[in-house]
């Protein structure tokens, strides 16, 4: 049995890990879109590093686009097997993949209208027809269900606490009469998340693929989210009379923001301005979350006793049409605009940033991890001039961040996730989904906690699991 790492290898995006059994069965863990990798992004998304037609099954950990966003491309290139995921992941992945297809087509159309002489036209990676075919191949497996994929291959999901429907993947594979247990963490959520339950414990694994996004960071030392939100909105909208632009992932982050703003209203502290969620996908994702109240933690359940809708408050409006979205840029009144994508790499938020970045009254608020090469990452790094739609813009707006809003656990959360394991019984632990310097730091931390065989795979690197 072998495993190869075709994405999220020494980076945090494009999750793809391919297990190949002796009998030729190939199991792909996630098939995510590379995002925010600068000029090489298009090349990375255009080459899998393996033959899509030879993949037997796909197991999807959760619905974030860097984990599911290339599934339609995989299907378009000949993958015909089942895609296993939880029910909520299926619900979310449907709308995210369709939205991704539409964004790609819209962005390509916009760029192609403004081509300079000699520039090549953009093409979307896949179409909405490819998404429809992909959805037809999805199959639901419930949390803690012992599911047989094929003889000698069993699958179990446990709740990873990252977003609605997110799961850690546990495979039990029998070859030559010997069982091997492989765990893929997916993305690990936070213990004490604003909305969701904490990650579940899981049985002993022989090999572990572990995410490491915040393997060198602690979130708990940062300011409370509600207080920071209040300070930024009040200073920008009420004092400077400007706008707050918040790039936020449509799934998870947007709902956390709405919940925090609703909490401010319940405490009579919410600044009296207009709040816009400018993302049709966010609207749909919020409804999906409302339809799965079983995932809420006890804190949210207590709030529901006094407030039947924890994602609604005075002044909130969901924007649907492109015309309404464009009108926000012509409205001079102070407001808060929450819009996708979270790394500011695509979608409506990119247009809002372009239209507001040169005004010092405004604030761009980053509320989660941004890949360093992404527009969000470049803003977070303090660049004074950024490229947006192939044009340079001077950064005069204030740039702020609330790192504690990340849905990824910090290194204490990651260690707690692994605390159910006997390190001496783990033959090898692979660090994925992290920047290389962070992974090196986390590898040392893991060594100190008894995990002696830690690998940091390179892009397309293959290992024997024996």
Automatic annotation (TrEMBL):
Keyword tags: Hydrolase
Location of the Beta-Casp domain: 254-379
Pfam family, one: Lactamase_B
InterPro entries according to UniProt: Beta_Casp, MBL, Metallo-B-lactamas, RibonucZ/Hydroxyglut_hydro, RMMBL
Origin superkingdom: Bacteria
GO molecular function list: hydrolase activity; RNA endonuclease activity
CDD domains reported for this sequence: TTHA0252-CPSF-like_MBL-fold
UniProt domain Metallo-beta-lactamase: residue ranges: 13-233
Keyword Hydrolase assigned: yes
Gene3D superfamilies assigned to the protein according to its UniProt record, in alphabetical order: 3.40.50.10890, Ribonuclease Z/Hydroxyacylglutathione hydrolase-like (3.60.15.10)
Protein name stated in the entry: MBL fold metallo-hydrolase
UniProt source species: Pedobacter changchengzhani
